């Protein structure tokens, strides 16, 4: 079997694609996997690092309004479709699986041109333009959110990295805290703002540091590789560890009792999969999907929701600190988050993709 995966640009598109690739390899070690990407996306680093072939397709971003650039789209899109179709010819693709992003549109249209079965996976409750198009070209549509409005949609969850799915926070907690220079017996808050960080979260958390430390809470704060902070808390106990980036998010999750973070689809999926409660701070711009991502978790009792404009050091002290100091509440929220988590989405989607490829796209 030969599978082509199209999901580039952001980690939210690439990581589920790579998690599916890993699950397909586990299902069939001899499977051929090719990932489509563009030169401007994170896939140029992430895909080769995971050992998969990356084939480039020209990026064709679609303008959101009528501009002179709109006139250039048909010609550029035709070239990208030809490129994607040529790659599918070269690898003799049995199925194309798209996850959205710039590369997905020409991939879907190239697959349709070549008669290659199409599978669409949409992680967000509000699908993007590429996946709205892809869903019109196939009956094989799977989603990471139960309320995503796409035709023929079947909810399976979001494929997650193996180290996240296999994480046992209780047995790994002491090792994880030692890894980051934290103590084993203190309440621990993990703060991060997605792969690039979030300035509002950084500022509020750092401003709350003196009160958190006086209360005996230690903090692991991932500020993001592109963010700078005016000043870090001075050394001392409890620890307040500031890092620009963490490669081992599984250990960061294992070290934590509670999280302060954005509400991206991958973040919500990972935290519920490992049973971590969180205070979710949805992005204040965009189409509001981050609030929709977090809403089911909050309704189930596994998290707290706060608007970006309302996030302050005082809010953290008044709302998050009492939770951290109440072990029974932390356990109850952890269990609630875990109940709605999906750990098997990678394996479920891999089996479905294999069945669709074997059937030549027929239901």
What would the keywords be for this entry?
363 residues, alpha/beta, Rossmann fold, 7-stranded parallel β-sheet, 6-stranded parallel β-sheet, 14 helices, elongated
Return the structural class: alpha/beta
Tell me the CATH superfamily of the largest domain. Answer: Glycogen Phosphorylase B
Q: Share of helix among residues?
A: 40-55%
What is the typical, i.e. mean, pLDDT? 91
The CATH top-level class label of the largest domain:
Alpha Beta
Helix-strand string:
EHEHEHEHEHEEHHEHEEHEHEHEHHH
CATH architecture of the largest domain: 3-Layer(aba) Sandwich
- The N- to C-terminal Cα distance equals 18 Å
User: How many domain regions?
Assistant: 2
Q: Output the number of helix runs.
A: 14
User: Could you give the order of strands across the largest sheet?
Assistant: 3-2-1-4-5-6-7
How many individual β-strands?
Answer: 13
Q: What's the overall geometry?
A: elongated
Specify Rg, calculated over alpha carbons. 21 Å
Report on this structure.
The structure is a single chain. This protein has 363 residues and is of the alpha/beta class. The protein is 44% helix and 16% strand. The protein contains 14 helices and 13 strands. It has a seven-stranded parallel sheet, sandwiched between helices. Helix 3 packs across helix 4.
Short overview:
With 363 residues, the chain is an alpha/beta fold.
